[in-house]
Design brief:
19 strands; about 35% strand; binds flavin-adenine dinucleotide; seven-stranded mixed sheet; alpha/beta; 3 domains; about 30% helix; Rossmann fold; Elongation Factor Tu (Ef-tu), domain 3; binds FE2/S2 (inorganic) cluster; about 280 residues
């Protein structure tokens, strides 16, 4: 059992939780994730390890309530416990001193997921820029955290309520137009955003590493649910990624596989809200 040490709302339906996980905290590195299961009849879901304290033995997760399990997670309070937290899973991001600027482009929960990677690239001696995207100012998360570890932070909101009006790709284009010498772009967030950024950087030959969030069941390379096609080969995101060359990902396949359980996800949510219980047990 893993006690929730802190719970904070950051934006509408977006939460920060600090969870006691001494074994995960001892070993995790930037770019890795956990699979958690709230109770014995619950499904396992992957969440990125956004921060950790090895001595105090906790990790920080940031999540959006978008379906049955994340809604249930959001009902837990400080002092409650999560049944299983397995990790750290996935390969750590490859962090090194690069030629040119490292640009982390984050959207939605991807902003928190990109934070430890941006910090690691800064610690490796790089110039680091973060470009954060949100629909509106109220939904923007983790700006201050990123300001503390980046040389520059830019924000784009769809409605122009904060930062530049438009998309993160507009901000990236602006940096390129201003002559920023970009060595590596790291988009993390909705697949459509990662696809668009990868398509933008391809003709410019700017290395682009994406952090894929395909549907995962076991998170350890056994079930095949997270499979994607990269450079024409089948790859398992959980055990071979989660970082891949964005120029080589078959985005259309990846995005269509993300929707493959939509019907079951909707049924689970309806069942949970109507009966107050999850599949196979009560909350
Ligand atoms: C490596 C990785 C790291 C992630 N990190 C974060 C994070 O830090 N914060 C965050 O808010 N979200 C993160 N996600 C997405 C998160 O796992 C899903 O939002 C969550 O599983 C949704 O579950 P649900 O039951 O609430 O919603 P559902 O209604 O079950 O699903 C809603 C949508 O979420 C996606 N999804 C559903 N189940 C899974 C699954 N098992 N694996 C991956 N995607 C799924 C699908 O696109 C689905 O259509 C991450 C995903 C991956 C693969
Ligand atoms: S989640 Fe099962 S193989 Fe990756």
């Amino acid at each position: 059992m893993h006690t929730i040490l802190l719970k904070k709302i950051l934006a509408e339906r977006t939460w920060h939780m600090r969870v006691a996980t001494p074994l995960v905290a001892r070993k995790c590195r930037a770019g890795q994730f956990i699979m958690l299961r709230i109770h014995a009849c619950g499904e396992r879901i992957p969440l990125t390890i956004a921060d950790w304290d090895r001595d105090a033995g906790f990790i920080d997760i940031y999540f959006q309530e978008i379906g049955a399990t994340t809604e249930l997670l959001a009902t837990l309070q400080e002092g409650n416990a999560i049944l299983d937290v397995v990790g750290p899973l996935g390969n750590p991001s490859h962090v090194e001193r690069i030629d040119g600027t490292f640009v982390m482009v984050g959207g939605g929960f991807g902003i928190a997921a990109g934070y430890p990677v941006a910090r690691a690239f800064k610690e490796a001696g790089n110039r680091v820029i973060a470009v954060l995207g949100a629909k509106t100012k109220k939904l923007l998360i983790c700006e201050e955290m990123l300001k503390a570890v980046c040389d520059e932070v830019y924000v784009a909101t769809n409605d122009g309520s904060y930062g530049r009006k438009g998309l993160v790709s507009d901000v990236l284009q602006g940096l390129l137009d201003e002559g920023e010498d970009i060595g590596l772009v790291f988009p993390v967030g909705p697949p459509i955003m990662m696809k668009i950024i990868s398509q933008m950087t391809l003709p410019l030959k700017i290395k682009t590493i994406v952090s894929l969030n395909s549907v995962m069941v076991d998170g350890t390379g056994m079930c095949g649910s997270c499979r994607v096609t990269v450079a024409g080969k089948t790859r398992f995101v959980c055990s071979e990624g989660i970082d891949f060359d964005g120029h080589e990902v078959d985005w259309d396949e990846m995005m269509s596989r993300q929707k493959m359980y939509c019907r079951q996800e909707a049924e689970a949510l309806t069942h949970q809200s109507e009966s107050g219980s999850c599949w196979g047990g009560s909350r």
